[in-house]
Amino acid sequence: MCQLLETIKLENGKLFNLSYHSQRMNAARAEIFDTIEPISLDDCIITPKEFKAGLFRCRITYSHEIEKIEFIPQNIRQFKKLKTVFQNEIDYHLKYADRRLLNDLFAKRGDADEIIIIKNGMVTDCTIGNLVFWNGKRWETPDTPLLKGTQRQSLLDKKLIFEQKISTYDLEKYSQIGIINAFFDLKSMPIIQIGNIS
Fold it and tell me: What are the contacts of 186-192 at 24+ separation with CB within 8 A?
């Protein structure tokens, strides 16, 4: 059976962006399993006492119903260098539990800390989140993401980032790249200089 994931930020007992995670989970359930009855993550997640201080991943594994809820300590990685990797066949529009293709692409990073996945000449994502690019005035995000992340959608809704068609040839127009995901917003995200892409 196809398993999917939601990874939710849990910091000092607070769960972040729950409504966005619920929306994405229910849309995926409807697409794959023709499931009509929505699930509210607000009603499903009970945070044990030992996870109410510190930073954790609340990892939801689900198919047509929720199968497992786990709480895992979150370690923040450092990012200084990115490498472009080309893969035209990848489809990750749903957050699948099976990440073997992403892991295979990540293994091609060489001495870089993370990769930028290029599909049909267009910039998409890295393996752990969506990307944003600083053009000197505003942060722009590719309109061709592999996965429409919850943080990405939240920032788009707030008009803090803006969709833009970004090809490999457009990268030189930008000065910085940021990585956003459930744990990284515009204030906390790692920022990499455009010159540190190989």
Answer: 186/132, 186/139, 186/155, 186/160, 186/161, 189/132, 190/77, 190/78, 190/79, 191/134, 192/79, 192/80, 192/81, 192/82
